[in-house]
Write a structure and sequence with these properties.
Blueprint (H helix, E strand, L loop, with lengths): L1 E5 L2 H12 L7 H23 L9 E6 L4 E6 L6 H8 L6 H12 L22 E9 L8 E5 L4 E6 L6 E8 L9 H12 L6 E8 L5 E7 L16 H11 L6 E9 L5 E8 L17 E4 L2 E4 L14 E6 L8 H4 L3 H24 L1 H21 L4 H5 L3 E4 L8 E2 H6 L7 E6 L3 H5 L5 H6 L4 E3 L4 H6 L3 E2 L2 E5 L10 H16 L1 H10 L6 E4 L8 E4 L7 H9 L11 E4 L4 H7 L3 H6 L2 H17 L7 H17 L2 H6 L1
Parallel strand pairs: 2-8, 12-14, 17-18, 17-20, 21-23
Antiparallel strand pairs: 1-6, 2-3, 3-7, 4-5, 4-7, 5-6, 8-9, 10-11, 11-14, 12-13, 15-16, 15-18, 19-20, 22-23
Bound molecules: adenosine-5'-diphosphate and magnesium ion.
């Protein structure tokens, strides 16, 4: 008995594609065939529930035959009848698994194993590396004789009788000359470990160690761990299991700070086991960082660890596994993009991760602080991109504050809760390092007034704050932005002083402003300064000079700059001296005034860390001012 059958046109097209172009990564042929073997075992195991005669010790074997260049993958699963062979691997878009599921449904079977049928073409991937495939199969629980299916994967296949006696299937691949590397044991181990390690049935490698010419002994070794710990019940997974698995996923991540083990049911079904590692990878913020993320499995079969669709980029520090039963095994990288199943998983996982982080923050402050130290910056990116979860993110991010030691970070909520009731806005100051920021003249009034200020020291903070104009109805107010409203006695006092000085010395302000020749929008007396002589204030919504520098460093063009306001401390000795200058000098706005105005402006620029437009001029100004100080007779100085 031998029948030759032609493949349908679309199968021929598909085979041509597979052999020449479909998969760039040829290793996956083994993944597909092992997955098919595992599916067949699942099917037989399910059938054995109602017919215990069919139960066996389930196994998948891989046997390389170097002498003949043949690699054989066998299983003792369900096997196929002749009709099934023709339907399953003679045509396309007809899946035996799916037919099986439909049959299940008709039977009203409720204990369906995880055999969600998908249309697949996995079997044909054998023709990537073989120019002849021989499949022998015998259906379990059926009287039909075994049969052999043979094809060169071009246009036709042959079916003939086989003397196989045991139920199950073996697929023998006659390897193409350039694919004989797959006969090497290390190679087989490698590929199985990579793609099929968590298959729940043993995958055994049968090696033939030739002792002498006619005698050979076979060694049999299980080469997969079978440990799909994400499929186990969470209570059956020990901390040690987690630590080991985490180390497998990310050797440098350290102990997991947080474990999330979840099983989603309903519209989208998947299992996930996620970890937040202790240590951030070094390249977390590099644009060309390692793009490896969560490992995507489809029914225990590894698909990829480069699937960026599973979590938003701001959660890229999360490690773990997602195992979906709703995706076809033969997904390609292209079909993973914009895949509705993946975007549902993404939303689900994102919500879960944020909720678990919130829990950690409530229950273990110290651990949360450790998390935030490593990944707070990354999380903050989310404020710009994830509108849906913005409120949750706002409750997770933390900042240093002026009145607390650097290690003690607070959330926006904690800051807002500890504000005096008269405080109308959340005050913040952004800068490069805390020590420098603490010296900012703009903080003098807040210190004197007893207000706390968020110190935003992450380079990303200012960018984040732009996306967050308010928290829970309370405005975020940058210190050094015009329009700072302050309550309290000290604030009132300073405000009055500034107002009085402004009225009394209007001419002086005008003269200073005139000699600055349009470099500032205005010169006025300040309510902010307790000690320093001067500072610069910017209008609201104006980009800070620091943010400008960051953008420029990133190669972007910041929006046009509006002019700052130069504020002077009415109580500073220098200003007192200026105020007492004869009116004539002020009216003239002569060289002395110009020199002072320019130096004050430059001092204010230095204090905020901005570059000077003309450092040489500043140096010569200061030098000549110093020279003049020394000219004055000592005695005269004290009398003034
Ligand atoms: P998929 O596995 O997604 O259905 P494949 O092309 O990998 O697609 O396989 C097609 C079908 O061939 C399978 O659904 C199954 O019915 C049948 N098949 C393949 N390999 C085996 C096997 N080892 N044992 C039993 N049936 C098999
Ligand atoms: Mg398959």
């Amino acid at each position: 008995m031998s029948e030759k059958k032609k493949f349908k046109t679309e199968v021929k097209q598909l085979l041509d594609l597979v052999a020449n172009a479909l998969y760039t990564n040829k290793d996956i042929f083994l993944r597909e065939l092992v997955a098919n073997a595992a599916d067949a075992i699942d099917k037989a195991r399910f059938e054995s529930i109602t017919n215990s005669n069919l139960a066996r010790e389930w196994e998948i074997t891989i046997e390389p035959d170097k002498n003949n260049g043949i690699l054989t993958i066998s299983d003792n699963g369900a096997g196929m009848t002749k009709a099934e062979v023709i339907a399953n691997i003679g045509t396309i878009a007809k899946s035996g698994t799916k037919a099986f599921l439909e049959a299940l449904e008709q039977k009203g079977g409720s204990r369906a194993p995880e055999l969600i049928g998908q249309f697949g073409v996995g079997f044909y991937s054998a023709f990537m590396i073989a120019d002849k495939v021989v499949l022998e199969t015998k259906r379990s629980g059926s009287d039909e004789p075994a049969l052999r299916w043979i094809s060169d994967g071009v246009s036709s296949y042959t079916i003939e009788a086989s003397d196989r006696s045991e139920p199950g299937t073996s697929v023998s691949l006659h390897l193409k000359p350039d694919a004989t590397g797959y006969l090497e044991e290390w190679r087989i181990r490698d590929v199985v470990k990579k793609y099929s390690d968590f298959i729940e049935h043993p995958v055994k490698l049968i090696s033939k160690n030739k002792k002498n010419d006619d005698e050979s002994t076979g060694a049999i070794e299980t080469i997969n761990s079978m440990k799909a710990i994400w499929l186990r019940s969470p209570k059956d997974v020990s901390d040690e299991d987690h630590a080991n698995f985490m180390a497998h996923l990310d050797p440098f991540g350290g102990e997991p700070l947080l474990k999330i083990h979840l099983s989603a049911e309903g519209a989208t079904e998947f299992k996930a086991l996620l970890y937040v590692p202790s240590n951030a990878p070094l390249d977390l913020f590099n644009a060309d960082r390692n793009k490896k993320g969560l490992h995507l499995y489809i029914r225990r079969v590894f698909i990829t660890d480069e699937c960026e669709e599973l979590l938003p980029p701001y959660l890229r520090f999360v490690r773990g596994v997602v195992d979906s039963s709703d995706l076809p095994l033969n997904v390609s990288r292209e079909t993973l993009q914009d895949n509705p199943v993946l975007s549902k998983i993404n939303r689900n996982l994102t919500r879960k991760v944020l909720a678990e982080l919130a829990k950690l923050k409530e229950n273990d402050k110290e651990k949360y602080a450790a998390f935030h130290k490593e990944f707070g910056k990354t999380l903050k990116e989310g404020l710009h991109f994830d509108f849906e979860n913005r409120d949750k993110l706002l409750d997770l991010i933390m900042f240093e504050t002026l009145n607390r030691p650097p290690e003690e970070m607070v959330t926006l909520k904690e800051y807002a809760d500890s504000m005096p009731s008269s405080q109308k806005a959340i005050y913040y100051l952004a800068g490069d390092n805390r020590e420098e920021m603490e010296k900012s003249p703009k903080l003098e009034i807040l210190r004197a007034n007893g207000n706390d200020v968020l110190l935003m020291t992450d380079p990303i903070d200012e960018w984040v704050v732009q996306a967050v104009p308010e928290y829970n109805g309370t405005r975020l107010q940058a210190i050094g932005e015009d329009g700072l409203e302050l309550e309290g006695d000290t604030a009132k006092e300073m405000e009055e002083k500034a107002e009085k000085a402004g009225k009394a010395h209007g001419k002086l302000l005008k003269a200073l402003s005139k000699s600055l020749n349009g470099e500032v929008a205005e010169v006025r007396f300040s309510r902010l300064l307790a000690e320093s002589a001067c500072c610069l204030v910017r209008s609201q919504n104006e980009m800070t000079p620091r943010m400008r520098r960051i953008l420029e460093a990133m190669g972007q063009t910041p929006p046009p700059e509006s002019k700052p306001i130069l504020e002077l401390n009415p109580s500073h000795p220098l200003l007192e001296k200026l105020e007492s200058l004869p009116e004539k000098t002020i009216d003239k706005g002569d060289g002395k005034i110009a020199e002072v105005a320019e130096s004050l402006y430059y001092l204010a620029l230095i204090a905020e860390g901005s570059p000077l437009p003309d450092p040489a001029k500043f140096t010569s100004n200061v030098a000549s001012l110093l020279a003049r100080t020394l000219e004055e007779p000592d005695g005269k100085k004290g009398k003034d």
